[in-house]
Specification:
The complex is a heterodimer of chains A (257) and B (257).
Chain A: E1 12-16, H1 21-32, E2 36-41, H2 44-56, E3 60-65, H3 71-85, E4 90-93, H4 108-135, E5 140-145, H5 158-178, E6 183-190, H6 207-215, H7 229-236, E7 247-250
Parallel strand pairs in A: 1-2, 1-4, 2-3, 4-5, 5-6, 6-7
Helix pairs in contact in A: 1-2, 1-7, 3-4, 4-5
Chain B: E1 12-16, H1 21-32, E2 36-41, H2 44-56, E3 61-65, H3 71-85, E4 90-93, H4 108-136, E5 140-145, H5 158-178, E6 183-190, H6 207-216, H7 229-236, E7 247-250
Parallel strand pairs in B: 1-2, 1-4, 2-3, 4-5, 5-6, 6-7
Helix pairs in contact in B: 1-2, 1-7, 3-4, 4-5
The chains are: A alpha/beta (257), B alpha/beta (257).
């Protein structure tokens, strides 16, 4: 191809929740596409392993251990990315947790955790990333990891689903507000996936859920974590230059049925 | 740097309505990503010119003039593609017509034309493509060109919007039925584009319309035909291996607001 619209060479991407699961795969995919990857999560050990994989494949990675639920930590994360690679072009707000319990068993701690981590801290991450992109002259791409649970009901996910429904609407709001600065804002919405999300209960490992996935979801299987890489590279890249405010379902057809 | 997830080398693609506009850009883009492309459309000179452009750029293409509303024409299109390139991996069902008229003034003939071309013939085209993909047993990807007119109302486009609403739902039904065969089915939904669609008249070129687009589209501009290329390559490629039954607006944020 003469010019590859998916190429991210020279761009700097921050990925939160990058020590494992979807975030680790997204960071690796962004790095493979040429981006400088800044990996953020609470635990340094997991991050170092992902960074080593990226470096071994010839990519550039930088690790920042931080708590994405603290505003000052996120400020430090973005400053570290700018310090290390000279700017911020792509922000993947991916960290999250999924308390899965029946509605009547959800307590205030669960509610605070789901709304506080999945929605409130995602808001702060985007706010600070967008602020930096605007300050450096505009342009950039923000991608949230939402969930198919933002649109369709999923066992035990009443508060998780509510937090992700908030993310989808945040995507649309920010897309409108920041389009004038050349910043695109989108989400990818994974369905049932093979990874283990933080705090996901056994409620999704039952034979009943396995039957549901096999019989109801068109693809009849869970998504692999590496299947999130293509969608995030697409949304982060110039290939999606006229795509903003969109929630891209990566769910094997779950939300379509 | 590697964006091989998006590479279409060795794949065979048909793009209908590829004599001009979005289809022309998509056909050229798929070819640049490595696919062998059959350019299909009503006007022989147009599709031949696009095939020539692809070959001049070092790609492989065959021009197949065809009548989209004819079952026999659709059969012949895919038969000739398979005869020429050996198999079929990607079908981009892109042909369409958009006549603007107040709903109360629409005649039976106009209603029939819009539904027949945009919905019925898209069904037949997708169906004939699917038959060949199922028979081969190697999966595939079908991408319909829908429209933001399927999701939001536009003045005087009631018949077109109804047809495209049907395309979105057809996309979900096709996705569900074809998933067991490894065939993914998705849509791209362009918003206001620089290219004027067949039949759409000059209404879209007035100063009033320019002001409406500026106000209603977060990105405050029309999309370029080339901006459909990335989304189509993404959906056609392995990068979207867990994406099916999805409707992807490429609209500068129009339907998000």
């Amino acid at each position: 191809m003469p010019t590859d619209p998916f190429d991210l060479t020279g761009r700097t991407a921050v990925v939160t929740g990058a020590s494992r699961g979807l975030g680790a795969e997204m960071a690796k995919a962004l790095a493979r596409a040429g981006a400088n990857a800044v990996l953020a999560a609470r635990g340094r050990a997991g991050l170092d392993a992902v960074a080593a994989e990226i470096a071994a494949a010839g990519g550039a990675a930088h690790v920042v251990a931080c708590d994405a639920t603290r505003r000052s930590d996120v400020e430090g994360l973005i400053a570290a990315a700018v310090d290390r690679f000279g700017g911020l072009d792509i922000m993947v707000v991916n960290h999250g947790l999924g308390p899965a319990k029946s509605l009547l068993e959800i307590d205030d701690d669960d509610l605070d955790a789901a709304i506080g981590v999945n929605l409130k801290s995602a808001y702060v991450c985007a706010q600070l990333a967008g602020g930096r992109m605007i300050a450096q002259g505009g342009g950039g791409s923000i991608v949230f990891t939402s969930s198919s649970a933002s649109r369709v009901a999923c066992w035990g996910y009443s508060c998780y689903g509510a937090s992700k429904g908030g993310i989808d609407q945040l995507v649309r709001q920010l897309a409108q507000e920041w389009a004038r600065h050349g910043i695109r804002v989108n989400a990818i919405n994974p369905g049932y996936t093979e990874n283990e999300m933080a705090d996901t209960a056994d409620i999704h490992d039952t034979p009943e859920v396995a039957r549901f996935i096999e019989r109801v979801i068109p693809f009849g299987r869970r998504g692999r974590v590496d299947e999130m890489g293509g969608p995030v590279v697409f949304l982060a890249s110039d290939a999606a230059s006229y795509v903003t405010g969109h929630c891209l379902f990566v769910d094997g057809g779950y939300a379509a049925v | 740097m590697s964006t091989r997830l998006f590479d279409l080398t060795g794949k065979v693609a048909v793009v209908t309505g590829s004599g001009r506009g979005l289809g022309r850009a998509m056909a050229r883009g798929l070819a640049a990503a490595g696919a062998k492309v059959a350019t299909a459309g009503r006007t022989a000179a147009d599709v031949e010119a696009v095939a020539d452009e692809i070959r001049a750029a070092g790609g492989e293409a065959v021009a197949i003039p065809f009548d989209a509303v004819s079952r026999a024409g659709n059969r012949r299109l895919f038969d000739e593609t398979v005869a020429r390139f050996g198999h079929l991996d990607i079908a981009v069902v892109n042909h369409g017509v958009g006549r603007a008229k107040p709903a109360v003034e629409v005649t039976d003939a106009e209603l029939a034309e819009t539904i027949d071309i945009n919905l019925k013939s898209a069904f037949v085209c997708g169906q004939e493509a699917a038959r060949r993909m199922v028979a081969r047993g190697a999966g595939g990807a079908i991408v319909f060109t829908s429209s933001t007119g399927s999701l939001a109302a536009f003045a005087n486009l009631s018949t077109y919007g109804a047809a495209k609403g049907g395309v979105d739902q057809m996309c979900r039904h096709f996705a569900q039925e074809l998933a067991p065969h490894g065939i993914r089915v998705n849509a791209v939904n362009p918003g206001y584009m620089e290219h004027r669609m067949r039949g759409s008249g000059k209404r879209h070129e007035t100063p009033e319309m320019a002001e409406e687009i500026r106000l209603a589209t977060p990105m405050a501009r029309r999309g370029r035909s080339e901006e459909m290329v990335g989304p189509v390559i993404f959906l056609a490629s392995d990068a979207a291996s867990f994406v099916t039954g999805h409707v992807l607006p490429v609209d500068g944020g129009y339907v998000a607001v």
